[in-house]
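quick one
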Amino acid sequence: MTGAGEWRRILDTLRDGRRFLLLLHVKPDGDSIGSSLALGRALQKLGKEAVLVCPDELPESLRFLPGSDSFVRPEAVSGPFDAAVFLDCGDLERAGPARPLADLATVRINIDHHLSNARFGDLNWIEADAAAVGEITYRLIRELGVALDRDMAYALYASLVTDTGSFAYQNTTPATHRIAAELLELGVRPQVVAREVWENRPEPALRLLGRALENLVVDPGGRLAWTRLGQEDFQRVGAGPQHAEGVVGYPRSLRGVEVAVAFIEAEPGVWRVSLRSNERVDVSRVAARFGGGGHARAAGATLSGRFEEVAPPLLDACRAALDEDGRAPA
Ligand code: AMP
Ligand code: MN
Ligand code: MN
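structure w/ adenosine monophosphate:
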């Protein structure tokens, strides 16, 4: 159970400690990056040291955030730490190459919003109905008694915008909007974040989208749609897997579609699969069957092999989930 006592112990640990390690998940997104930047800055304002570790390259679209140049690579970190804080990591594996660094800390704190969270920390705070870890981080900072500044506001706003698809997904709540309103009052210009996060795209990304649309397949019945981007597609347009971000939104946007899938061949024979649903199907359960995870409406997994081997079982699992949904009472 996530109880008030656990929350207090997390606050006490953050107040009492001096040196903190902040960890985010592989292929970091706006939520994990924004939350760690905001919490790191709050801890620094309390006179503490915060080391922010990024297991992968920072996406281009988030480099506008103040402080985003302060992330260090796992191999550059040395301990000890009073606590390691995992942000937005549904399980330990999600921390990737940074995971062993947690052993340099006395206490492991796990702050997340994935329902499936494995509660791997010594202290765990899992709020599955928080739209983003940024919402939880916002409250942590408030309760630490740190005044939010504009840099933290930008970081938290980026976290909310990315995990809610600009306040469009089902996870958006009145609380999300109230926090966002306060962040705007602190000086965030929403058009700046939207332009940086969703636009400002390099040309290869748009050319790649063209390939993804050509590769679109719609299942008979129209409730399942998917696309793929293989190595040959990347090579054709001079793009890399980092340019495939958001592609799954296009099959998802199709009229009548409930489940959308994008197969992205990030390295030869390694497929990063993105799953989305619009209204009903819990795609995190489909992803979990293939070693992945995520949320009900947005999940993912990584599969190895040829497309002809990896795709059919996953698509069949999507069809089964859709059939099951069709049999359930509306
Ligand atoms: P993506 O489609 O990459 O944007 O991922 C959507 C969501 O699925 C993420 O926010 C994660 O919660 C989850 N996810 C993606 N890939 C994996 C994976 N390999 N293992 C576990 N969860 C994942
Ligand atoms: Mn995330
Ligand atoms: Mn998140």
